[in-house]
Amino acid sequence: MVIRGLVKNFGDTRVLNGVDLDIGAGEFITVLGPSGCGKTTLMRIIAGLERQDAGSVEIDGRPVDALRPNERDIAMVFQSYALYPHLTVFDNIALPLRMRRLSWRQRLPGMRRIDRSAQAIERGIAAKVREVAGLLQIEPLLARKPAQLSGGQKQRVAVGRAMVREPRVFLMDEPLSNLDAELRVHMRAEIAQLHRRIGVTFIYVTHDQAEAMTMSDRVVVMMGGRPLQFAPPGDVYADPEDLQVARFVGSPRINTLPGTVHAGGSIEVGGLAVPFDTGLAPGAQVTVSLRPADTKIALQTPDTAGADRAGRELAATIVHRENLGSDLFLHCRVEGIDATLVAREDPGKVGLLPVGAEIRIGLPVEHLLAFDASGRRVRPGGRMTSLAQPAAA
Amino acid sequence: MTGRGLGPTAGALRHVVLMAGAVIMLSPFVWMVLSSFKPQSEILTAELTFLPQRWAAIENYATVWTRVPMGRFLLNGAIVTASIFALQVLVNLPCAYALAKLRFRGRRALFAVVLLGLLIPIHATAIPIYILFHHAGILNTYAALILPFAISVFGIFMLRQFFMTVPDDLIDAARIDGVSEIGIVWRVMLPTAMPAVTAFGIFSVVAHWNDYFWPLIAIGTRELYTPPLGVAFFRLNDGGTEYGVLMAAATIVIMPLVAAFLLAQRRFIEGVTFTGLKG
Ligand SMILES: Nc1ncnc2c1ncn2[C@@H]1O[C@H](COP(=O)(O)OP(=O)(O)OP(=O)(O)O)[C@@H](O)[C@H]1O
Ligand SMILES: [Mg+2]
């Protein structure tokens, strides 16, 4: 599936601002972004429920922009499940097949009792519905109405209705957001398994980064109607192309510090000169950031207070502590600059690191990420990222 | 709200008030039914008696059936009200769906016109419609009784308000599943709007079953009389009004409605509370 230059305006507000994506067949893609960034709008345009103002969508090399939703061979699972309340689970799942396989005359009430060919088709539909229900383990629910189902069961029925006609592309718009935390983790695994089993392209929308990180082959991080980065989950976390991506992915949030580029390949951060050749002009403002997990702190003891260490570490004070049992997060106020860093530590050290303790924070160059004033990533060695290169290719 | 926190006196008082209301509402009906059992002489006496001293029920009801073809009138009423309701559903549902869920140029203006239509009573349009039907040559037919009510702005308005509450996702899901727009109206909107359709159905049937004004204008031959015209037949004929017979006719006419209401009671109350309308 190829998406080119999608633009969508609602009145005067631009909701999608040039979306380009190349999605391979059978890939599991997650669209991750904060509320209101246009994820649902993107899904609706792909599904054909909304018309774009510019750009095109191609599936298997064929533009689908002029096709109606049911002609696109796409299935969608809605956040609200959107099950037909008056139909049983069986009929809910059977409806897409009935619309496809039966002629309108055969769909008239009562016709299925008279028409022999309709009966044969109906038997085929029933077999298919049972097969799907078996796969999703909802066979005992087939006779119930949606109102008699739990959230997780409704979710499964919605998936069943989507997969019964074997679409080429599966769209899921925050399908798990109405479930409780435990069920969410469970369904996460089930959807990933389902993808492996049926092997079609999945496009999965979420604003939950755990879902994005655990389920997908690649993640699209969207902000303000634009994809900022499209990469495997690990890269989005460890190698973000944009400061907004770095801030959005990872919990707790990535630490950021203001810095100034100095001549001779270094950045000055809070009085420290960090060797980091940005290739930017001296005096340029940059943002230096560091994941809490990579932020290492040490107690300021008389022997570490020596002048030889002062040039390489920031002096700070612990102002707040969060002990989650598995992790200990320390909020540290850095002296001299207006910034608070969060450091992850082993909870075993909780006794050693009381609130108010004077500490030192190192800035390990290999973990530092630098971003220029517009938020784009700058890499050491003066290479700009491909995104940052203005129309080079 | 439930009054459970009130003392026993207040609770009793509440029941007294409600009972008084019920008595006031019901007494004309009860009186009508009782009068239909009484002979003319007893109805016209000065003193009030509750039960008839001499039962004249059989005479009164028999007079109704022999003097006019009451069965025919009831059948006419059934044909007319059923046709009106069927046509109204056929027109109102797609209209209400378009006004509630489709985006098109002029939708707001169109809805404003519908609201405006709510303000125009049948009495204002009766004469033009009469002249129109006269030229079309369909006065004195079933068509003349049915067609003026085939489109109900009230029904469009009521269903549109209900359809606004149906989630868009449901309609989009149907579109993806391959249901056409007309299919959505009948396969998705109608089943979900059943309480509203039932409520509207009762308003419509009651209004047109009891309608006296338009049939009086449009119909001249007795074969096409609707039940209210049949009742009116017993008013002021040669020997003055025979009240017992008149009441018997009125009782016969409202019986089908009462029966239908009792059957549909639960759904009706659901529908009315659902749409927030008060009868
Ligand atoms: N029909 C519409 N008319 C006008 N504006 C709309 C419409 N639909 C969406 N928007 C606006 O477009 C923006 C993007 O909406 P969208 O639903 O795509 O966000 P989202 O990324 O799915 O958010 P969420 O995570 O909350 O679901 C929002 O600012 C929203 O207000
Ligand atoms: Mg959304």
Question: Key features?
Answer:
heterodimer, A: 393 residues, alpha+beta, Rossmann fold, OB fold (Dihydrolipoamide Acetyltransferase, E2P), 2 domains, 6-stranded mixed beta sheet, 6-stranded antiparallel beta sheet, 11 helices, 21 strands, disordered C terminus, B: 279 residues, mainly alpha, MetI-like fold, binds adenosine-5'-triphosphate, binds magnesium ion
Q: What would the principal axes of the Cα set say about the shape of chain A?
A: elongated
User: What's the overall average pLDDT of chain B, rounded?
Assistant: 86
The average pLDDT of chain A is 87
The CATH topology of chain B is given as MetI-like fold
N- and C-termini, Cα separation of chain B? 22 Å
Structural class of chain B: mainly alpha
Q: Count of DSSP helices of chain A? A: 11
Distance between the termini of chain A: 23 Å
Which class best fits the helix and strand makeup of chain A?
alpha+beta
Assembly status = heterodimer
User: What is the helix tally of chain B?
Assistant: 14
Please provide the ordered H/E string of secondary-structure elements of chain B: HHHHHHHHHHHHHH
Number of strands of chain B: 0
Q: Could you give a short account of the major beta sheet of chain A?
A: 6 strands, mixed
**Which consecutive residue ranges of chain B, at least 5 long each, have pLDDT under 50?**
275-279
Which CATH architecture of the largest domain in chain A is right?
3-Layer(aba) Sandwich
Estimate the strand proportion of chain A.
25-35%
Which small-molecule ligands are present, each listed once? Answer: adenosine-5'-triphosphate, magnesium ion
Helicity range of chain B: over 70%
Number of domains of chain B: 1
